Amino acid sequence: MTTTIVKRATSHGARQDGAHGWALAYIPLKLAVIYLVGTYGLFLTLGRAAESPNLMKLTLFVSAATGALCVGYVMHVTLRSSPTAFGATVGRRHAPPRTLVVVSATYVLLLGIAQLNVIGISSPTELAHAVTNPGERYFLQLQQEGQFSRPVQLLTLLAALYPLLIPVAVLHWSRLGRLLQLYVLGSLTTFAVYYMAIGILKGLGDMLIWWAASYLLLLGSRSIRPARAMKLTNWRHLAAFAAMLVIFLGYMSFNQSDRARTSGQGPAVQGSPVVAGLIGDDLAAGLAVTISYPTHGYLGLSHNLSVPFEWAKGTGSSPALGSYLEQYTPFDPQFERRYTARTEVATGWPDGMYWSTIYPWLASDLTYPGAVCLMAVVGWFLAKFWREAVLQRRVLSMALFGQLALLIAFVPANNQLGQTRPALIAFVSLCALSVIARIQRRVSLTAEPAESSLPTGRHHRPTTSGATRGRRPDSVLTA
Question: Which of 87, 131, 339, 365 has the fewest CB atoms within 10 Å, counting from its CB?
Answer without folding.
Answer: 131
